[in-house]
Amino acid sequence: MIQDLVESQRWPTRRWWALIGLVFATQLGLILWLGRPQRMLPLTNDRAPTLRLAGQGSAEVLALTDPTLFALPHREGFSGPAWLTIHAQEFRPFAWSEPPFSLAPIQMQLGADFETFMSTNQPEGLPVVAQPELKFKVPVVVQSEPFPTESTLLLTGGLAGRHLLAPSALPSWPSAEILTNSVVHVLVAADGESISATLLRPTSGSIEADQYALREARKARFEPLMINDPTNPLEGLTWGQLVFEWHTLPLSITNQAVEPAPGK
Q1: I need a surface site. Which of 6, 62, 212, 221 has the fewest CB within 10 A?
Q2: Residue range 177-194: average pLDDT?
Q3: What is the DSSP letter of 94?
Q4: CB 237 within 8 A of CB 187
């Protein structure tokens, strides 16, 4: 029975929420009422009464109220006599009153400084420079090949490894200029016979020497080659050059000087 009485005295949930809402609304109303801005009353611009001195000595007293009296240079301040009052300066040039005169040289002191320097700085002996012993050097003489005394034949190209069966002695040719080489392009068959010979340009400088080289190239015969197919005419063909290096002989003087006829 007591338990039923206690349960009947409890507030329902709706009443609790109503109480909480009432407290919240009361606090919010107080905040809005107390936090509204207050109206500022304008200040009155009524000037306060001031006192001014009148008379002849009032100017100096009134000058003390100047706000720039101590902040800036002012004639009435402590810096007036130093900064704002500039006195005129008098410039007086320097005048020399003593007459010029020349000093006479003292003969006893002439050369005294040089004599003192030489007496305190004695010259020392010259340093001895070690001289290396002289070595006699003999210049190295490069041995050069002597000038050729006869004409020679040189095989080049594919004929460099071929053996010439009957080389003939080549003559020397007289000429006023040194002759160059005569080069003959030769086609040699497998049996060693010369099939074709062509003289290459430029010439040696002597037509006789070039024609002689062409004739020698045409009748030249080389060592035959071993071929696998004798029926093939192209097998064993060799191209090469015969270079004839000519020896030049000086021309003999045959024209004698002609004596002038008498009376001319």
Answers
A1: 6
A2: 87
A3: -
A4: yes
